[in-house]
Every structure is written in C-alpha cells, then in structure tokens.
C-alpha cells in the first residue's frame, strides 16, 4: 500500500491568513521538570495549513466541526492537474472530470509557489464549475491553496455555493508529490466541540 502524505507541516513559520494566530508548539512541562514526561501545548488558527472548513466558518447557522459526517472525508478521490488551465470554469473542467461521479476532487493548481510565504493571489472555481460538480455528485473538493475563494473576497461566494450544493471543503493540501489519478482520501477533522474548522492529516492511498 502506497501512502502519500498531502499535509503541510505545522511549525512556527507556517504561513497563516494575514493577521491570524501563528502556529506554536512548545513544551509546557519538560521531562526534567516532571521527572517523567515531556508535555506539549499548541496554539493555532484552525485555518492554518491543511484543514477543513465547517459550514459554521461562513454561516452562523451552519454545522460545527464535531457535527460533520465523517464519511465525506474518507473515500474515493481523484487528483486533477489544473495548473495549465486559464480559468477553472465548467467548460475547461468538463473533459477532466468526465465520468468521475461521486468521487472527491482534489485540484492541483500549483499556484501556492513558496510554502513558507502566504500567497498574494490564487485561482478559484468559477461558479458554473460548481454546477458541474453538483451534477457529478462530488462530495468534497480539495485545493492546494489557503482558500476556495479569492483571498480578498468578503462574500465568500464559492464557500457558500459549495455548501448549498452539499460539497465539503478541504484547503491547504500539498499535491506537489502526487500524480493525477485515483486514490483513497483520508482527511479527518478533530472532534473539537463547536469549532468552525479543524486541522487534518490528509493522506492519499493508492491501492
Ligand atoms: N475563508 C478562509 C479563511 C478566512 O477567510 C480567514 C481566516 C483567518 C482569519 C481571517 C479570515 N478571513 C477574514 O476576513 C478559509 O476558508 O480558510
Ligand atoms: Zn479554512
Ligand atoms: Zn475556506
């Protein structure tokens, strides 16, 4: 079994959304202090690196992370290379997604160029592409980007339309080391009561 880790590393220099809480891990107690164990603590925004968005992130009435159906985050997925497409619209995606019903779709844009720096501009799906995803009954999409919307967007129309279409959102994956093709995805959120999102360890399994 081949396992591809498509998660970004969390460390103190992992880029965050501008102004958001930096990631930190430190030893709260050391083995020297306790005489038995090292005990770490973390602080982070749940939207750092590889994570999922719960609908509550952008919808006051939306489901929280601990209320999500986990089956969406495990199962058949395809990686599609869209790095050469001018626009992520229905027409350009139709050929790539033909016949791929019910699979999670992971978009490899390669547009986050420097993993140590938050990108300045990113591509995003045109709304007509979401109609295509709906017709294919896609349960989840993943992007190698910090957001499915434009970074400056305040109305988050892609987030909202995906949610209305019942398509879950995985952001910040790293697809540099995986080829196009079919895999099994596992990217489970933590059981954080009431949260608007969660970091995930995302992996692709090739059988
Ligand atoms: N929508 C982005 C996150 C986002 O918008 C955000 C994350 C942290 C701090 C502020 C944010 N947006 C603010 O206006 C995401 O889905 O991860
Ligand atoms: Zn997010
Ligand atoms: Zn998001």
From TrEMBL:
Keywords carried by this UniProt record: Hydrolase, Metal-binding, Tryptophan catabolism, Zinc
Q: Which reaction is the catalytic activity of this chain?
A: N-formyl-L-kynurenine + H2O = L-kynurenine + formate + H(+)
What Pfam families does the entry give?
Answer: Cyclase
EC top class, as a word: hydrolase
Pathway annotation from the record: Amino-acid degradation; L-tryptophan degradation via kynurenine pathway; L-kynurenine from L-tryptophan: step 2/2
Provide the leader sequence positions: none
Task: Tell me which residues bind Zn(2+) 1.
Answer: 47, 51, 53, 171
Q: Tell me which residues this entry annotates as catalytic.
A: 57 (proton donor/acceptor)
The cofactor note from the UniProt entry for this protein is: Binds 2 zinc ions per subunit.
Positions with a binding annotation for substrate: 17
The EC number(s) this enzyme carries:
3.5.1.9
The domain of life for this entry's organism is Bacteria
Binding-site positions, Zn(2+) 2: 53, 159, 171
Q: Name one GO molecular function term.
A: arylformamidase activity
Keyword Lyase belongs to the record: no
Question: Which cofactor names does the annotation list?
Answer: Zn(2+)
**Quaternary structure (record):** Homodimer.
Functional description taken from the UniProt entry: Catalyzes the hydrolysis of N-formyl-L-kynurenine to L-kynurenine, the second step in the kynurenine pathway of tryptophan degradation.
Q: Which family does it belong to?
A: Belongs to the Cyclase 1 superfamily. KynB family.
The record's listing under PANTHER family reads: CYCLASE-LIKE PROTEIN 2, KYNURENINE FORMAMIDASE
Name recorded for this polypeptide: Kynurenine formamidase
Q: Which gene encodes it?
A: kynB
